[in-house]
Amino acid sequence: MTPELIQQLGDELYQAMVQRETVSPLTSRGFDISIEDAYHISLRMLERRLAAGERVIGKKIGVTSKAVQNMLGVHQPDFGYLTDAMVYNSGEAMPISQKLIQPRAEGEIAFILKKDLMGPGVTNADVLAATECVIPCFEVVDSRIQDWKIKIQDTVADNASCGLFVLGDTAVSPRQVDLVTCGMVVEKNGQLLSTGAGAAALGSPVNCVAWLANTLGQFGIGLKAGEVILSGSLVPLEPVKAGDFMRVEIGGIGSASVRFT
Questions:
Q1: pTM of the predicted model as reported, rounded to 2 decimal places
Q2: What's the rounded Cα separation, in Å, for the pair 233 and 67?
Q3: How far apart are CA 14 and CA 28, in angstroms?
Q4: Which end of the chain is less congested by CB atoms within 10 angstroms, N or C?
């Protein structure tokens, strides 16, 4: 793809986000778009966000669990950038009716880094050594692509369908919890919605962070000390609307909750 077309599509997705309007899938428009092209489009979208005053505070890994892969028809992980405009505290109201288009919530484990990680060659031991703590998290993904009709290139270009996220108010060392077997329970409006375990995300959330560090390393991008890394959903995505309340509990780590307005 030409640099001009990449910039045009990045600008289109940025405007769709700002105006809360969807666009047709990029992969349905008749031009050849590679995953690498899609990442360049997402970087243009990010450039627009940064120019508007946002700053990068972390990164997210998407499409890591079989449940989410099957739901979206996308069968490999991807990544996106988190900014300070996306983060909310546990229990805080999240104004999805003003900020998002077609939101879906998922329970995750967030990693807070205390050291830089630069791939390739990052191991799980490296990830654990570089992690300050893990925190329960809700990621509320959103797609600027009409009706979530996405292929991998569409979600990659759209900053891995980033929306907003909520961090819980408890944090533990990653060495204090078994991140493979830890159980997750998600409730919606007081009813049990879904359950999952750490192993749902590529076998372990630690595998996800190592994958991210090594994948980004190929682009010369590292994970930085202080960054928030969302490691991928352990449960199916759940459509949400104003008035809904959700809570996630992760064994050995704690809980996070969010009220949607």
A1: 0.94
A2: 9
A3: 19
A4: C
